[in-house]
Amino acid sequence: MTRIAFIGLGNMGGGMAANQAKAGHDVAAFDLSPVALERAAEAGCRTVASVAEAVKDAEVVITMLPAGPHVLGVYSDQIIGVAPASALLLDCSTIDVETARKVAGLAKEAGYAFADAPVSGGTAAADAGTLAFMVGCDEADFARVEPALDPMSRITIRAGDHGAGQAAKICNNMLLGISMIGTCEAIALAEKLGLEPERFFEIASKSSGQCWSVSNYYPWPGPVPTAPSNRKYEGGFASAMMLKDLKLAQDAAAKAGATTPLGAQAEALYALFNGLGYGGKDFSAMVQMLRGRIDT
Ligand code: NAD
Fold first, then answer.
1. pTM given for the model
2. Which of 7, 9, 12 to mutate to test ligand 1, by most ligand atoms within 8 A of the CB atom?
3. Distance from C-alpha of 172 to C-alpha of 249, rounded to nearest angstrom
4. Tens digits of per-residue pLDDT, 197-240?
5. Which of 56, 71, 254, 278 is the most exposed place for a label (fewest CB within 10 A)?
6. 168 near 117, Cβ under 8 Å?
7. ipTM reported for the complex, 2 dp
8. Radius of gyration (Cα) for the chain, nearest Å?
9. Using the 8-state DSSP alphabet, how is residue 156 labeled?
10. CA 63, CA 116: separation in Å to the nearest integer?
C-alpha cells in the first residue's frame, strides 16, 4: 500500500484516483469542487480539506488539473516544501512545455523527483485504467514513475527529460486534430458525391486513408459503435479541449521556430467551431460544420 495524494478529481482525475484506491492504495484526495469530492469518496478515496492536508504524508503526489497556471500555482504554493522531500511528484495534466520545465526545476531545487506524465485515452480509459502515459523525467527516476502509474495505465513510455512528456502529448494531439479534420473533409466530400459515408468507411478503413480517426473514432454514426458520433457527439473529447491542445502546439511551434501550417489550420477550424458554440461537443462533430449543416 502506498500513500498517494491525488489533486484534481474532474472528468479524468476522478476515474484515475478511483483506480488507485481500487488497487489498494491509501488515496488522500482533494478538489475545489464538492461534487468531485463526493464522487471520489464514493469510489473509495479518503477526501481531505486542502492540498496541504493531502500531501503532508504522501509517498506519491499526482495532479490532474486543467492548465499550466493551475499546475504552477498548486506546485509552487501548496506542494513543494509541504510534501515530504522523499515524495515522487507526478503531473498528469496537459500543459505547455515551458511551465512543465519550470515546475520540474522548482521541484528539483527543493530535492523532489518530478515527472510530467500527460495521458492519452480520454475519460473511458481513465475509468478503465487503460491510459497511455508519456513521461518526461530524469532517467534514474523512471523506475519509480512506472509502477506508480501502473493502476491507471495500459502503457507508460519515457519520452525523455523534463518537458518531453508534454512535447509528445502536444505533437500527438496536433496530429490527431489534423487527421480528424482530414477524415471529416473526406466524409463531407463523399456525401456530396453521392457516396454513403458508411460505405466510405468500409473502403477507407481498409485502404491507404486508414488512420485512428477513421478506424476507432469514425465521425459518422454507425460503423464504429463506441464513437461519440453515435451519441450526438456528447462525452468523449470536447472540441474546447482539442482547441486548447492545438493552441499549445502553435505556441510551442512559434517558440521553437517550427513550421506547422496544417496545425495552424486545425487550430483556426476548431476556433471557428468553438466560436459557433460547439466547444462542448466531441471534436469529431467537426464533420457537421464541414458538410455545412450542423444538426447535432
Ligand atoms: P476537469 O475540468 O474535468 O477537471 C479538473 C479538476 O481540477 C476540476 O474538478 C477542478 O475543480 C480541479 N481543480 C482546479 N483547480 C484546482 C486546485 N487549485 N486545487 C484542486 N483542484 C483543482 O478536466 P479534465 O477533463 O479532468 O482534464 C484534466 C487534464 O487532463 C487537462 O489538462 C486536460 O487537457 C487533460 N486531458 C483530458 C482528457 C479528456 O478527455 N477530458 C484527455 C486527456 C488529457
1. 0.92
2. 12
3. 10
4. 999 999 999 999 999 999 999 999 999 998 999 999 997 889 99
5. 254
6. no
7. 0.99
8. 20
9. E
10. 10
